[in-house]
Design brief:
alpha/beta; binds adenosine-5'-triphosphate; ABC_Transporter_VariousFunc; ABC transporter ATP-binding protein; 4-stranded antiparallel β-sheet; Rossmann fold; 231 residues
């Protein structure tokens, strides 16, 4: 479903990403890990055509993301708060997205009902602007927005960061449920090895822009990653 070929990103002389080939299957929950500066965000940004690659291509369902637009209607993403509209309240923001996606009010309610536990009565109906939300609540709004409109592919950059422990557990359950019910392909970058190994059936480890492990064996993932990160 997603195909990366001969992908390179260079800033001046520094090659920050070098991925000759990577395929991600439909419905896969793909975890991306690596130390600070390994290239995780750069990879996601190129895959979403937010940054141009120096060389190579990314295709989603055969469409080159840098040359076509159709894939955008089937793709959701939350990378950071720049993707939100800070001058709106969460309710206004979701209403705006509802119109963009052409959903009915009932569809939106159905969607937001899935987030009741995660929102913990701190997000909707509060008349608080997005810019004034806590970092954790910002993230919750971004994730709920990324999952709107029945996307086939969802990119989440560090979804567990800034969430309290209860919210982390609720988010994990929510992702697993979505994965089960709608067969969404999730691409999740995370520094939290426990969460990412729990929800993802495949983990790719980046080091200095290169894929150095591609782990698919659930029982061995954690031990391999722990061995790598403890050095
Ligand atoms: N606009 C830019 N100009 C120069 N270098 C950049 C630019 N954007 C990213 N980089 C470099 O690319 C490398 C990869 O950064 P990236 O943010 O993708 O890493 P990451 O794995 O997401 O890190 P983190 O875990 O800290 O979020 C880093 O060395 C970073 O300094």
């Amino acid at each position: 479903m997603i195909q990366i070929s001969q992908l390179k990103k260079q800033y001046k002389d520094a090659v920050v990403l070098d991925v000759p080939s990577l395929e991600i299957a439909k419905g896969e929950c793909f975890g991306l890990v690596g130390n600070n500066g390994a290239g995780k965000t750069t990879l996601f940004r190129i895959m979403l055509d937010l940054v141009r690659a120096t060389a190579g291509s990314v295709t989603i369902n055969g469409e080159d993301v840098s040359k076509t637009e159709d894939w955008k209607a089937r793709t959701g993403a939350y990378l950071d708060e720049h993707m939100l509209l800070a001058y709106l309240t969460p309710d206004e923001y979701f209403e705006t997205l509802r119109k963009i996606y052409g959903l009915s009010a009932a569809d939106l309610k159905l969607h937001l009902d899935k987030f009741v536990e995660l929102f913990n009565d701190e997000v909707l109906g509060k008349k608080k602007y997005i810019r004034d939300l806590s970092k954790g609540n910002l993230k919750k709004v971004g994730i709920a927005a990324a999952l709107m409109g029945n996307p086939e592919v969802v990119f989440l950059d560090e979804p567990f960061e800034n969430l309290d422990p209860s919210s982390q557990i609720r988010l994990k359950k929510l992702i697993l449920r979505e994965k089960e019910n709608s067969k969404v392909t999730f691409l999740i970058s995370s520094h939290d090895l426990n969460h990412v190994t729990e929800i993802c059936e495949r983990i790719v480890l980046l080091e200095k822009g290169k894929v150095i492990r591609d782990l698919r064996e659930k029982t061995e993932m954690m031990a391999e990653l722990e061995a790598y990160f403890t050095g």
